[in-house]
């Protein structure tokens, strides 16, 4: 198998692992599905130690779900930006030395 | 794996911060030395940090019907070792604590320990052990990233069980409960983490084979 096929399979495998639960799990009796595990742990703490009060709260919280998703989106975009800047930089820089990798373009 | 702000009793919050601090201090020192000695590595450090940034922002659905996120720690731990990657992971957690109210400053020590420090050391140890057992590099990368991801969530579960032992079944009962929430959900996600880490390293090796081989000799291309 060449590298391109392997990479395509890696992408397909990751997508399948996310898509299978998304489309196979159905909510029963209106219960919430795909809640965050962090939140479930918070609930479990409440069951083990009823009445536990967090003794410190965040200085600032995103004022709405929209703002929160904005900030998560920003985090993902920044991260992806770094990864692909690095990939693009080396692809461009090394393309001159390896004509097959960029259709012979380069110096 | 984010323990929410204020959700660890004071002595646990302080204890985990004290445990994490030296790892991050040494890591910061080694990271700055690395950047000084090898400026070319900065781009790959940026990519490693970026990978952790993007993966930890995306919550993925799991077969348990709940959602959790990947850590992206394995890539950087393989490329730059556990000290440096611990620092980058802690930066991600600090960003989320400050701007997303996700995790928190009082729980930063504990969260940095589970994701950035334990995650990096597990990845690095598995990577070295797998290579020593003659596992091919891609397989070793997969194992390292997968077990690092899963290990982070196991550590979080144990941290919570230590802080909140069950009144009847004690630490063990509580640990089972938190492992049920975190670790089981994480199994398919950890596999995704392994696949994505192999993918990104494949892309990096495809475009910067020489540079990657210089950073990690075990990832040298073997062309037929």
Short summary:
The complex is a heterodimer of chains A (107) and B (224). Chain A is mainly α. Helix content of chain A is 61%, strand content 2%.
Could you outline the blueprint of secondary structure elements for this entry?
The complex is a heterodimer of chains A (107) and B (224).
Chain A: H1 3-24, E1 35-36, H2 37-48, H3 65-95
Chain B: H1 10-37, H2 41-57, E1 59-61, E2 66-69, H3 73-99, H4 108-132, H5 137-163, H6 170-207, H7 209-215
Antiparallel strand pairs in B: 1-2
Helix pairs in contact in B: 1-3, 1-4, 2-3, 3-4, 3-5, 4-5, 5-6, 6-7
Description:
The complex is a heterodimer of chains A (107) and B (224). Chain A has 107 residues and is an all-alpha fold. Chain A has two domains: 1-57, no CATH class; 62-107, no CATH class. Chain A is built from three helices and one strand, in the order H-E-H-H. In chain B, helix 5 (137-163) runs antiparallel to helix 6 (170-207). In chain B, a hairpin with a 4-residue loop joins strand 1 (59-61) and strand 2 (66-69). Chain B has a single domain, classed as Arp2/3 complex 21 kDa subunit ARPC3 (Orthogonal Bundle). A two-stranded antiparallel sheet of chain B has the order 1-2. The model of chain B has no long low-confidence stretch (mean pLDDT 95). Chain B is globular. Chain B is mainly α and 224 residues long. Chain B has helices at residues 10-37, 41-57, 73-99, 108-132, 137-163, 170-207, 209-215; strands at residues 59-61, 66-69. Strand 1 (35-36) of chain A pairs parallel with strand 2 of chain B, so a sheet runs across the interface.
